[in-house]
Design a protein that fits this description.
By secondary structure, this protein is α+β, with helices and mostly antiparallel strands. The protein has a single domain, classed as Peptide Deformylase. It is built from 3 helices and 7 strands. The strands form 2 sheets. The chain has a 5-stranded antiparallel beta sheet, with helices on both faces. The radius of gyration is 14 Å and the shape is globular.
Length: about 140
């Protein structure tokens, strides 16, 4: 189910709690919401739909991927500067991102996974993981 985008700076500034199997409907709602905004958005965190759980979704090629409890376990030493925007607020902000990352997470089947990402996909994941920590970009 598509949900409205949260713009409450207080809620968005809070850290998210770990996700459980009971939060799978939230992950599905997040996938539905990001797909509805695909013309303007490539990723979302659960707090962007008002839910303080550690769940993100992101565009990975032609499909969207959901991660529950993502943890970036490795960051490449090579970084770059970028400008990022967000559906939760207007404008863009300068950020520094790692060119490549490795992430441990639970998939929609609640099985533990580890994946490596680079380039724009890594940038999206870093942005969404910042949301989980209450960091507004």
């Amino acid at each position: 189910m598509q949900r409205p985008i949260c713009r409450d700076v207080f809620l968005l500034g809070m850290k998210s709690a770990p996700a459980t199997a009971e939060d799978l409907p939230v992950a599905q709602d997040l996938l539905d919401t990001v797909e509805a905004h695909s013309h303007e958005c490539v990723g979302m965190a659960a707090n962007m739909i008002g839910v303080l759980k550690r769940i993100i979704v992101f565009q990975d090629g032609a499909r969207y991927t959901a991660m529950l409890d993502p943890v970036i376990t490795w960051r490449s030493p090579k970084t770059y500067d970028a400008e990022e925007g967000c559906l939760s607020h207007t404008g863009t902000k300068p950020v520094t991102r790692h060119e490549a990352i490795e992430v441990e997470y639970l998939g929609m089947d609640m099985k533990k996974r580890r994946s490596r990402y680079s380039g724009f996909t890594a940038q999206i994941i870093q942005h969404e993981c910042d949301h989980l920590e209450g960091i507004l970009i």
